[in-house]
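Summary for the lay section of the report: proteins are chains of building blocks that fold into shapes. Here we show the chain for ABC transporter permease and then a coded description of the shape we predicted for it.
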Amino acid sequence: MGIFLVKRLFTFVLTLAAASIVVFLVLGVLPGSAADVMLGETATPEAMQALRERLGLDRPPVERYLGWLGGLATGDLGISSSYGVPIAELIVERLAVTLPLALLAMAFTTVAALALGLYAASNHNRPGDVGVMAASQLGLAVPNFWFAILLILVFSVKLQWFAAGGFPGWSADDGGGVGPALKALLLPATALAVVQAAILARITRSAVLDVLREDFVRTARAKGLGRRAVLWRHVLRNAFVPVLTVMGLQFANLLTGTIIVENVFSLPGLGRLVFQAIANRDVVLVQDIVILFAAAVIVINLVVDVLTVVIDPRLKIGHA
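The coded shape description reads as follows.
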């Protein structure tokens, strides 16, 4: 296990370094700068040059990249040019919305997908199976942002059960609280979970059908175990390895997929923050958020690799 973790950590560092180079180069070719946005087209060349020097935009690209990388290594993420506050504070504040949203969406995805996938597999080639597969195909075809707008029209405009957008906060002192905050995240989490649940339900069905054909399942049934007991005690655990792998990828997708949904529901999370930072040409803030998303994806994949070996000891560490 030690060698396995060392290899994965080495891969983590290399991948993160490559991602940082790509992010820096891509954002470096964007037209305009934070100085252009802050001063506008009527600014004098002298004022523009002074602001560029204050923001460090006049330095060579290599120097700016190494400075940014050094700041990441020491935990100094810099100051946001558009908000004028430390970027670390902004990220922590917005992560308090994005992370619970992604976790809630992942919970919805897991519960719905496992239940539907097991039901479809246990009713293979029956109307229930066909219905689940048809519903999952529809879920795959529905864009998150379109479904989010549909949820707002139905539950906010027509039924008026939920607010159309905004976030009250987790603190009751600010007029929010845990209950109102979770309620504000229900519709966005549902919009995020639809496509992922459709994918995971199909993966679960396929994995369960493969395990149901194994000899040990027939042996368990021959010993008198009921259908439900066989499914939950024997089949699901053995089918969970491919399902867990997809779940890890999906959680990473949910984190990065919040950009559109948070803008639809006007949620003050990381997704909306990066969108605003791009509009304001706040390059350092965009770089920090994107590299945070990249690191989260890599860490999630590492955790999935470890859990896969724990769940299925037949997998050799050296080949994981």
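Put simply, here is one thing we learned. The two ends are 10 Å apart (CA to CA).
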